[in-house]
Specification:
about 280 residues, mainly alpha, 3 domains, 11 helices, L-lysine transmembrane transporter activity
Length: about 280
Amino acid sequence: MGIHGKAYILALGLLTSQYSLLGYDASAHMIEETKNADWSGPMGIISSVALSTTFGWIFLVALTSIVTDIPYLLSPDNDAGGYAVAQALYAAFDRRYGSGVGGLVCVGVVAVGVFFAGAMCIASNSRMGYAFSRDRAMPLSRVWLRVSKNEVPLNVVWLSVVVAFVMALTSLGSQVAFQAMVSIATLGQYIAYALPIFFRVTTARRSFVPGPFHLGRYGVAVGWAAVLWVAFLTVLFSLPVAYPVAKDNFNYTPVAVGGVLLLSVGAWVVNARFWFQGPITNVDL
């Protein structure tokens, strides 16, 4: 019962870091609202990755150093009701200071971070929705294309909020369904990252015109490294996360992501290729 291979566990553990390193593309989605975008946009992405890696590493080292009794941390009978991170922090402060209040404060800091991450997702999704609507690639594009007097696409912002809320509600009824949607969002986003990089280092290798920020002669090598890493992650995200495999722990990631890809490609072949002309620019180049 369970997974005992250390290499397999290590590989699955990499997935957690990939969840936390998502979202740095928010700088790209907000690029039209950024000054000196061709330089500050890439710098925002690099800064996000660097800060997430640094502070994430510090947090993980501190957290793993206080993990002692793993079965108890996962038990629903502990003080945190089975929430391992909260229980580990609570127990560490309780052992050291005789009170777990410090652990609750740390959990509060994590909660604030999660809230800001959610706000980032809403901002990022709303800008993507606005861009798709501007390109007439979303149903009811005219509705989502509208902006307020402050030049904020409020309609699509609220659409993003409602969709995120509904998706979160599924976790109350089925963790399997919720995990499937999270898998689509995570793995699908990495695939979306990798596709333009792949075409940059293959078909557009000679025709690509770099902007002010570029990697010079190292760009192709870094691009291939990114593509291969995403290919590796795609395999990892599709592996079983528990044994024996059953309907309650089955990894639906390949099914969910494959279904979305089939629907997208099918929509393109059947309909969109006859009218979609690509992104619509609103500035003269």
